[in-house]
Each structure stands twice: as C-alpha cells, then as structure tokens.
Design brief:
Number of helices: 15
Distance between the termini: 49 Å
Structural class: alpha+beta
Shape: elongated
Low-confidence stretches: none
Number of strands: 16
Largest sheet: 8 strands, mixed
Bound molecules: histidyl-adenosine monophosphate
C-alpha cells in the first residue's frame, strides 16, 4: 500500500467539515475588517525566502522544500506566505492603491520539520497582512482580528502574548547586551543555541531546551528599546486596552522569522500541547525594502488551520451536514425524478438521486443508510397526479405534495 508522505495529512469527514466552517468564519471576519483575498503561487524562487525569512532561521537553514526545476531554477515550496505577499506588492505596484492595503489568504505551506502533534510538513495557513502604514493602531487592530476570530468561533483557553523586538538600531544594541549576559553561560547552552549565540542570539530566548532560570536572568529587550520603539509599543498596548483585549507581555517572545520589527505577538491555546501557537505574527517594517521595494511598513499574522481544527475537535465542536433529500423512483418515472432532483437542488437542498433503482423497499433502505431526512417517492401513481410522496424519515409521516407546492413544502420545514 502506498501511504501519505510523512508529515502530510488528509482531511476527511468531521475534520473537513470543521475546516470548512472555520474557513468560512475566518473569511467573513477578514472581510468584515475590509481585507481582500489574495492568491499567490505555492512556489517561489528560493531567494525570496532566503532574503526575507532569513538565512539564519530554522526555516531557511533546514526546513525548506527546495528543488532545481528542469531549467535550472532554484525553486522552493513556500514555507509561509508573508514573503510572497511582499513580493507581489512590489511586483504589481500595489502602492498605487490607498494604503494601508489589507489582504488575506489561505493556502498550503511546506516545512521539513520533525512531525509531532500540531506540527506537520504540509499545513494550511490563513493569514492577513496590512501593508503601508506604521500606526500602532494597525498592530492593535490586527491582533484584535486574531482575537475576534477566537471569539467568533467561541474558542476557550485562548490567550494573547505580545512583545516588542525593537528596530535595527535598538535591537543591535540589545543583542550585544544579551551576548554579554550569555557569555558566562555559553557552555551550558544547547548545541543549537551555541550556534545561535553567533548567528541569531535572540532565538535563544525562545529555545525550549534552555532553563527558565537562565532566561529570567537575561536582560529584557523592552528595557533597551529606543524612544520611538518604546512609544510605539506603549501605544499598541493602550489600543489593545481600548479594544478590550486581555494580553500578557512575554519577554521571551521573539518569533522564528527574521523580518520582524517592533511588535510581535501570538495567540496561544491551552488545548494544543507544546506547539501551542494558534497564530503568530508581527510588524515587518523593513521587509519590502529589503526585497527591493520602497520602504513600506507592514503588519500581519498567520494561523495554522490544522491547529484550529485540533482545538475545535478537543472542544467538541460539531458541524452537521445539510439535510439530505433522497429521491426514489421507478424505471418509467426516471425522467421526472431527474427534473424533481434539479428543482430541489435549485432551492438549495442537498439531493441524492438513487442510482440503482429497483424496488421502493430497497431504495428506502439505501435512504436510511445515508441518514436522509426526507425520501421523495416518484411512483407511477404520483406521476399521474402531478405530485410526489414525501416521507419524513424521522417522524415517519408521509404527505403527497403537488409539484407546484414543493418549494412551499421545503420552505415551511426549513423555517420550522
Ligand atoms: P509562523 O509563526 O511561522 O509565522 O506560522 C504561523 C502559524 O502557522 C503558527 O502559529 C502555526 O499555527 C502555523 N504553523 C507553522 N508551522 C506549522 C507546522 N509545521 N505545522 C502546522 N502548523 C504550522 C508565519 O508564518 C508568518 N508568516 C506569520 C506572519 C504573517 N507574520 C506577519 N504576517
């Protein structure tokens, strides 16, 4: 038997219904905040991620699905979508639109990570990006959208964590202070952090292998922010208060992608185990410039759909199917059956036309197996009368309904 590829997942049955209902809610929330959908390709030139996510990140160092295509181009299956949005923004001159431009997306991403609960090699991200303004109100509104999603879906055990990682100026200064403080502990660091000490020391703060005791004694970045970054962060926090969003400042939150500046945040769930970030994001004021565009600030987040479905499952969410109408017919009423099925579909009903035919007894057994709510019998007698016989499979009541009254029949039941 050929199985699915390690780290890749099928969605089916209940899970796919949860996925679809979540997607609908996410899209509705994004659109209610005036975000417009954007679709970008799942492949990009590898250079895009090397220059945006960053050479010294786990993603670029060891997790990219990269290949050389038949013409020798270096291509990567996208590990995330923000870089693609920035590329698209520059390439299509989106700056000619009123700014901030507000975009949302949903699609597959790929990272060659070690699979575990909540972590896959192929996963879906929903995300939003607001590009072209550095107002702290936009940071707060983006977080508010993440929070609204959790509220709208009635997720429990959710909390918001926030931090600021400053700008080029103050972060460079902080990095030096951090390295000074870490120096005496260098030998205690895990192998990855020994390397990060030289390449990306901020990542040591969110390494799960390092002790809380070590981390608690390290200098905190918010104490080293320059005045502009400090004021920006304070404004974001005061807007969060105005939006009534409970949050917690987490000094170890630094995020695993290099393009962030100032605000970084995560919405975490108590129902996800160690991979507890339902969504993560932040501000990226240099990204577009570093990819060759004009200096353009931006802020956004992405949410993992598998993690969202996992939370919904653990909180016993159910999404029922639409009521099914099963059509039973006789060989010489088949044409009428096709017509009735089409009419009922045009009323928005979910209709299953029996495909095996045979006796009504056999057809009704098949209707029961499919959990139909109604069985519509189209027999010769009914055809002569210009009607059908409808059986409510739950109450077992039967009613003869004229073709012309079908709409009213189902409308009344829908409203009941
Ligand atoms: P990220 O934190 O790498 O950020 O990913 C965002 C979310 O995608 C995570 O919180 C998680 O729910 C989901 N996710 C990431 N990796 C996996 C995985 N291997 N398996 C399952 N789910 C996963 C970004 O990707 C940024 N582009 C977010 C952003 C948008 N920042 C600004 N705008």
């Amino acid at each position: 038997m050929v199985t699915s590829v390690k780290g890749f997942k099928d969605f089916y049955g209940k899970e796919v219904r949860l996925f679809k209902s979540a997607r609908k809610a996410l899209e509705e929330v994004a659109e209610s905040f005036a975000y417009e959908e954007i679709l970008t390709p799942i492949v990009e030139y590898s250079e895009l991620f090397e220059r945006s996510v960053g050479q010294d990140t786990d993603i670029v160092e060891k997790e990219m699905y990269t290949f050389i295509d038949k013409s020798g181009r270096n291509i990567t299956l996208r590990p995330e979508i923000t870089a693609s949005i920035a590329r698209s923004y520059i390439e299509h001159h989106f700056e000619t639109n009123p700014l901030p431009l507000k975009l949302y997306y949903l699609g597959p991403c790929f990272r060659y990570e070690r699979p575990q609960k909540g972590r896959f090699r192929g996963f879906y991200q929903f995300g939003i990006e607001a590009i072209g303004d550095d107002s702290p109100l936009l940071d707060a509104e983006v977080i508010y959208i993440g929070y609204t999603i959790a509220q709208r879906l009635k997720l429990k055990n959710i909390s918001v964590k926030i931090n600021s990682i400053g700008c080029r100026k103050c972060r460079a200064n902080y990095k030096e202070k951090l390295k000074e403080a870490l120096k005496p502990h260098y030998d205690e660091l895990c192998e990855d952090c020994k390397r990060r000490y030289y390449t990306n020391p901020l990542r040591i703060l969110d390494c799960k292998k390092e002790s809380a005791q070590l981390k608690n004694n390290l200098p905190k970045i918010i104490d080293y922010l320059c005045d502009d970054c400090k004021n920006h962060f304070e404004s974001v926090l005061s807007y969060l208060d105005k939006f009534n969003i409970p949050f917690e400042i987490d000094n170890t939150l630094v995020r695993g992608l290099d393009y962030y500046t100032r605000t970084v945040f995560e919405v975490v769930s108590g129902d996800l185990g160690s991979q507890n970030a339902l969504l993560g994001g932040g501000r990226y004021d240099y990204l577009i410039e570093e990819l060759g565009g004009r200096p353009t600030p931006g802020v956004g987040f992405a949410l993992g759909m598998e993690r969202l479905v996992e939370i919904m499952k653990s909180q016993n969410f159910t999404v029922g199917l639409k009521d099914l109408v099963y059509i039973a017919h006789r060989p010489n009423t088949f044409e009428k059956a096709i017509m009735v099925a089409d009419i009922l579909r045009s009323y928005g009903l979910m209709v299953f036309l029996d495909i095996k035919n045979g006796s009504f007894k056999n057809q009704i057994e098949r209707s029961v197996k499919r959990n139909a709510k109604y069985t519509v019998f189209i027999g010769e007698e009914e055809l002569k009368n210009g009607s059908v016989m409808i059986k409510n499979m739950i109450t077992k009541q039967q009613l003869e309904v004229k073709f012309n009254n079908l709409k009213d029949f189902f409308k009344e039941r829908e409203n009941a």
